[in-house]
C-alpha cells in the first residue's frame, strides 16, 4: 500500500494507553520509502483539529470544528514527526517542547531524546497530553472516529467554522 503524507494541527492531543510499536518503512504515494514511528493508543482526543494534505495539485483541508473535541478509538498512527509541548503526566505541568519521530526526524535536544527513550521502553503511562501540536504522518487507522463538526475545503480554501 502506498501512503500519502498528511498533516494534523491541534491545540490539544491526548493519547490514552499508548504503546510504541517500533519504526517501520512505508512506501509513499510518490514511490519513495520513508521511516515512520508506529504508535498505538486505545484512545486519542483532539481539540481544534485541522488536517490537511498537499499532493502538489489539490490541497484538501478538513477540521473538527473550532473548540470541538474529536475522539478516535483503537488508533494506530504512522508518524513521521510530531512537535508540541508535552505535559508531564504525573504532575500535569508542561515538560516543554518536544519533537518525536524516527531517527533523523526526532529532536536532538535532551527533552526529545529522553521522551523517545521512554516511549521505546513501553512502560505503562498515564494519558499523555501535547498542546500546540503539529503532526506529519502517513496512515492512521481507527475503529471509531467521532467528529462533531466536520468541515472540508479544497485547493487552499480553509474550512469555515
User: Tally of extended strands?
Assistant: 10
Instruction: List the total number of helices.
Output: 1
The structure class reads mainly beta
Main sheet overview: 10 strands, mixed
The residue-averaged pLDDT reads 84
Helix content: under 10%
Give me the strand/helix succession: EEEEEEEHEEE
* Distance separating the two termini: 34 Å
- Low-pLDDT parts are none
What is the approximate shape? globular
Classify the beta-strand content into a percent band: over 45%
* Cα radius of gyration in angstroms: 15 Å
Provide structural commentary.
This protein has one helix spanning 110-121, and strands at residues 2-3, 6-28, 33-47, 50-54, 59-63, 69-88, 93-100, 128-141, 144-146, 151-154. The termini are far apart. It is globular and about 45 Å long. Strand 2 and strand 3 (33-47) form a beta hairpin. By secondary structure, it is mostly beta strands. It is built from 1 helix and 10 strands, in the order βββββββαβββ. 7% of the residues lie in helices and 61% in strands. The model has no long low-confidence stretch (mean pLDDT 84). Strands 1, 2, 3, 4, 5, 6, 7, 8, 9 and 10 form a 10-stranded mixed beta sheet that branches.
